[in-house]
């Protein structure tokens, strides 16, 4: 209202000034001449200047306090809304990430607990086997004593062949040392007999080793060494037996042969860190470190050698050198081997090698590349993703866990899929929706020729947990048959099926 009022007054003043100017100009014209400006004209000019100033203010009025407050409030309110929206988004994403991480950790803990339970069952079985072994050794000792007592008349015979036959029987039963002592007591040439026992494939490994060692006790060191070297090349011998052979060769002063046997033991796929450390101590004692390095380096770089043998050579070689220098040499080789691995077994073995060397992170990128490669063989993809989950690396744990689930869901519905992976999927609740459908999957697994004895027994255990007790009992008996170890581990479970309370529902399917 103020601006409009001022504008109307300005228009009125302008009109009055215009009329006055016109009157003055007329008067001047009538009077003739150009007199000096009158006070009226000066007033008119001043009014014109005031009108011009008012016009400028009307065209661009000054902003008052409330206009400035309105502009600033709009600007800052927009900033506040954007900030609140960003904060809410960040908190939501953080919460979702925490939930996913918690779920992944829970799954890892469940998987670890299951593996721990299986380890405990295996330990119980191993303990039972050790008890059985001790009982058998006691029975053998009693049997040997009875045999010697029954063979005394033969040992007292004057016929050398009868004596040798009796001594051979005692040695084959696993007590060559006693046979040697008896041969001296009854004056019998027992060397040919011992050589025959040492080279007898059908004899027990312990009896063959004892026969070879007994040759040394009779003063036949060269023959004993030759027999022991031949025995060391027999891969059917246990690692402890082969280490015993190496110790006997060292006792016979055959240090180089003893070192070679020790190195063969270290390269065995079943040789763990404890065995390798023992071999390392022996090689140091035998002054064979430099030669061992050369041989191990050749094996580690030999692309034609078995993966397990190359891995063992690489690990052993890294122990014989400065650790960091060894890693600098072998990490690229192991990565190349990992990329070229053809089976899940080879991939697992190489990934475990990285873990034992303390550099799981160096294999992580390649494992993820394999695990997420849709063109790769599905069991190899699963092995890679599963290893990443086990490693627990922050960068890949969640991604690998999701990929692992995706693979299991993909394979479980395929009747032609890998039975081992299908069994894992059902066990972890990633199978079908209903108990009946899961039971069908387990029956398909049991019919697969690709699944082993213990895989079948685990499938039978799941059938029993779903409530199919009679079917589980029948199939369990069929699978166990005369397998002593299987009956030892699962026989008790089958006996408890009748009395135990089993879960009649299928394992829950997780999202």
Q: What are the salient characteristics of this protein?
A:
mainly alpha; 0% strand; 511 residues; 23 helices; disordered C terminus; elongated
% residues in beta strands: under 5%
Determine the mean pLDDT: 77
Structural class: mainly alpha
Largest sheet: none
What is the overall number of helices? 23
Helix content: over 70%
Number of strand elements: 0
* Shape assignment: elongated
Task: Briefly characterize the structure.
With 511 residues, the protein is an all-alpha fold. The longest helix has 91 residues, at 65-155.
Molecular structure report:
Helix content is 77%, strand content 0%. The protein is an all-alpha fold and 511 residues long. The C terminus is likely disordered. The chain has 23 helices and no strands. It starts with a helix and ends in a 15-residue tail after the last helix. The longest helix is centred in the N-terminal third of the chain and has 91 residues.
Produce the secondary structure layout:
Elements: H1 2-31, H2 39-59, H3 65-155, H4 160-172, H5 176-185, H6 191-198, H7 205-217, H8 221-232, H9 239-251, H10 255-266, H11 273-285, H12 289-301, H13 307-320, H14 323-340, H15 344-356, H16 361-371, H17 378-391, H18 397-412, H19 419-427, H20 435-447, H21 453-465, H22 469-480, H23 484-496
Helix pairs in contact: 1-2, 3-4, 4-5, 6-7, 7-8, 8-9, 9-10, 10-11, 12-13, 13-14, 13-15, 14-15, 14-16, 15-17, 16-17, 17-18, 18-19, 19-20, 19-21, 20-21, 21-22, 22-23
